[in-house]
User: What shape does this take?
Amino acid sequence: MLWGSGMSYGHSHGNANLPILYAGGKKLGVKHGKHIDFNLPKIGKYNVAEANEHYKICGRPVDDKARLSNLLLTILQRCGVKTEKFQDSTGVLSEVVA
Assistant: This one.
């Protein structure tokens, strides 16, 4: 099951750093039970007080792996679909593959 939103911060209409929940697929080789934030290791902390810096993250992730299309590609491959690309994906998310 995949659940989430296409908007991370309503005030900025940001479409990066989306809240996404992926559950199921253990028999397909999917790892669960953790929170993955691709931006945080690169930025160190979120600082919403600095609006300009915060809006940069809202509009474009700082880690190229932080794409919903990468998660969708990973799910497709785990379900047996033979494809190497989905929309603007850059690759499978090794963080969720067992």
Q: What stands out?
A: The chain has one domain: 2-96. Helices lie at 40-43, 51-59, 68-78. The chain has a mean pLDDT of 80.
